[in-house]
Amino acid sequence: MFDKELLKEKVALVVGGSSESGPAVCSTLASFGAHVALTYKSNRKGADNVADRCRTFGGKTAVFPLNLSETESFADLIMKTAENLRGLDILVNLGGPPPIFSDFRALSNAEFDLMMNTHFKGYFFLAREAANWMEKNGGGLIVNISATSSMKYSHSVYGLAKACIIEMTRFLAYAYAPKVRVLSIIPGMIDIKEVDAELRKTRAENSPLQRIVTPEEIGLLVVAAASPAFQSVTGEDLISDGGFWLLHR
Fold it and tell me: Is the dihedral of CA 209, 212, 216, 217 positive or negative?
């Protein structure tokens, strides 16, 4: 559906590229010609396997450790990516710890901090570091991965953090225009093995399109956002969940 050299010589950094939907996003970007850097928190072997897969498409790769709570390391990550792969054109903020859905009445400070410091604060400062670099070096694209939990008020602090990402995207899009575009992708339940198979089947059956989003499709949305078709779009959201949110707002 796109020219296979659409992202040739472009450099993409995928935060959280070593697990869950990350590997497919990395591979999809690499398949369109991008050089791919990815981060991991503890699974170095998994990250190396993803990098090996990306290299089969002919591009360069780099792998870096990252803890989203350690904002002081972000500037170094951006510089190492740019130095190792000779630039940075696309940042995909994808990583983060598993969701916490504790009732607000019992939510602890530690639970609140974990969700907000990673899924929101971590994304913000990573995006800012990348945008600062891009603004000085010809521009670029930042894609923040939110979730449909951001629109479900029963989803506790995880939903709150993901809602903050969407608003953050708009603020950053304004602040860094015209050289840097910033978008959000809002997937629903993702078709990955880490999610119970019966739960995935039920969600698909109860969605208007009778399906849920795949990790590869999230990668394709990033490719689309980086294509000429989206050059006039910034500060916007792309919901991809088979239409489930239409029935369960």
Answer: positive
